[in-house]
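Support request from a user on the community tier.

User writes: "When I paste my structure tokens into the form, the page sometimes reloads and wipes my input. The last time it worked, I copied everything first. Here is what I submitted, just in case something in the input itself triggers the reload:"
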């Protein structure tokens, strides 16, 4: 971008490439074209005078947007939607006359917003899981380490470092629950006409309301929604925006609390955020290690909490069936809210390991800079790394295995994925959910037997269950049987080739279980093995999705 034009710091410094692409012009206007194509397809299938050839031509020109034509047309007509209808018609001339048939502008603008917000929330969910995974590992490691507690920021009775981290986790878990609730209840606007009465479609379908309902059901299903709002004006209810920005604000509140606590603790050198090898702590005082990440989290969180005030102010003044004074505000407040939440969670992840890549770096660093004091019977770091490499070599045949390929293919076609893991395996289930959501695969993680059992009533054909279990425990047998009654595919990731579950699931993948014997048995950390496998799976899934795109 030109350096003599203002650029938002959220896009230039803080937000992820995924979120920047999600709210890009390309993504927005291609989504409009996908919506117009879906509308034409549904109208064709339900008997309106639209041909399969017209639908096919629209399908073929979703991505080749001539922005110059659209911008020139908008200058003439002062209407962005009709400008893009015109540009789409130039690209697909045989379909020019049926684009947007019966619809109002909000059909593309509002439905596109709902699609983008849904996908943005799913991505933020994956980042939140990453934060929780880091905190969980930290809390377990320091569960019994005592530290001075504070009330009123005055010295009080001791607590443990792990317990304090659990307090931060509890806040983030409440955010996860609220985010999941919003995702589970988010509805589609559909194609509802100028004032929400569907009057234009009643004319097109000769008063057949059942066909209109079926049209909306088909369009919603094409974009992954199972429900439309039962009643609306021209737009979807702006209370939805309030719910979304409120949960983003809630994330900011949790992040601010954690980061501010760390800033206080860093003053006393009780806890410190990571400090990189070449980082400069202060321009004038080289000895200083300022909590810059935590300060940035607090700064961005304040902005995000304040941003949430835009939605209720907009929702409260809708002026009957529609007003346009929400448009300019929403173009800024919603995308900026998502970019800011993305930045905050990315920074929160940077307070610990972000996935396997950083873990590997830490291992390498430990090899180069071993600790000064070690237990007498501790396994030498170099030997640990040797055995990690041995584990990776034993896993190499999986790269080209039918099981891994089938697993990736199954995930690429899944409606949703549920990852199960008890005790130590729960961390691996969290990592899988984190990685899959990054790919746009809707993945939930369950870590207790009660919630696993409750999902028997939720899962259906098209869903996939992934079980992480070192031993392939018998506990899962009943669950697997119940899941499969609903024609749900089940995948088992285990280290026990003799597990009885291998014969009950659709796909079973057996990973190596390694030990090191030097006066005592040192089991290979199963989490490391699982993480290695997840990275292999991610690469295979990337290849599969790329092939499907082509």
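"...and here is what came back when it finally went through:"
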């Amino acid at each position: 971008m030109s350096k003599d034009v203002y650029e938002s710091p959220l896009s230039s410094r803080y937000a992820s490439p995924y979120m920047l692409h999600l709210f890009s012009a390309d993504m927005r206007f291609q989504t409009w074209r996908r919506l117009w194509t879906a509308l034409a397809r549904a109208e064709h299938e339900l008997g309106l005078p639209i041909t399969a050839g017209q639908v096919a031509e629209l399908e073929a020109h979703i991505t080749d947007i001539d922005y110059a034509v659209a911008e020139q047309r908008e200058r003439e007509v002062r209407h962005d939607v009709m400008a893009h209808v015109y540009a789409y018609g130039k690209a697909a001339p045989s379909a020019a006359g049926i684009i947007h048939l019966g619809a109002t502008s909000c059909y593309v603008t509002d439905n596109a917003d709902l699609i983008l917000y849904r996908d943005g929330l799913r991505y933020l969910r994956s980042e939140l899981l990453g934060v929780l995974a880091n905190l969980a590992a930290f809390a377990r490691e320091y569960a019994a380490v005592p530290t001075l507690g504070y009330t009123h920021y005055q010295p009080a009775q001791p607590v443990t470092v792990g317990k304090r981290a659990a307090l931060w986790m509890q806040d983030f878990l409440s955010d996860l629950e609220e985010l999941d609730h919003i995702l589970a209840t988010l509805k589609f606007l559909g194609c509802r006409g100028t004032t929400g009465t569907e009057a234009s479609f009643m004319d097109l379908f000769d008063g057949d309301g059942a066909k209109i309902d079926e049209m909306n059901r088909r369009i919603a299903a094409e974009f992954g929604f199972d429900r439309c709002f039962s009643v609306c004006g021209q737009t979807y209810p702006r209370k939805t925006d309030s719910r979304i920005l409120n949960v983003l604000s809630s994330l900011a509140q949790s992040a601010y609390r954690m980061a501010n606590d760390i800033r206080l603790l860093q003053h006393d050198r009780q806890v410190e955020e990571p400090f990189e090898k070449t980082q400069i702590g202060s321009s004038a005082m080289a000895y200083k290690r300022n909590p810059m990440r935590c300060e940035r989290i607090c700064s961005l969180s304040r902005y995000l909490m304040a941003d949430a005030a835009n939605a209720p102010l907009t929702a409260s003044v809708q002026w009957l069936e529609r007003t346009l004074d929400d448009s300019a505000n929403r173009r800024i407040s919603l995308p900026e809210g998502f970019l800011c939440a993305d930045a905050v969670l990315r920074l929160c992840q940077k307070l610990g390991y972000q996935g396997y890549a950083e873990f590997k770096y830490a291992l390498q660093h430990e090899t180069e800079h071993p600790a000064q004091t070690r237990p007498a019977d501790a396994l030498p770091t170099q030997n640990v790394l040797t055995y990690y490499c041995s584990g990776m070599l034993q896993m190499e045949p999986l790269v080209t295995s039918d099981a891994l390929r089938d697993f990736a293919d199954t995930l690429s076609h899944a409606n949703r994925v549920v990852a199960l893991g008890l005790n130590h395996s729960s961390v691996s289930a969290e990592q899988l959910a984190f990685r899959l959501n990054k790919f746009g695969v809707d993945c939930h993680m369950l870590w207790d037997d009660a919630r696993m059992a409750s999902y028997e009533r939720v899962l259906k054909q098209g869903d996939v269950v992934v079980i992480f279990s070192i031993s392939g425990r018998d506990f899962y047998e009943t669950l697997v049987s119940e899941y499969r009654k609903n024609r749900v595919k089940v995948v088992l990731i285990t280290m026990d080739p003799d597990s009885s579950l291998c014969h009950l699931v659709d796909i079973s993948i057996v990973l190596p279980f390694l030990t090191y014997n030097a006066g005592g048995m040192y089991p290979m950390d199963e989490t490391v093995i699982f993480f290695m496998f997840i990275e292999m799976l991610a690469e295979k899934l990337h290849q599969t999705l790329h092939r499907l795109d082509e």
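Agent notes: The reload is a front-end session timeout and is unrelated to the input. The first strand starts at residue 146 and ends at 151. Residues 353-382, 515-524 have pLDDT under 50 and may be disordered. Escalated to web team.
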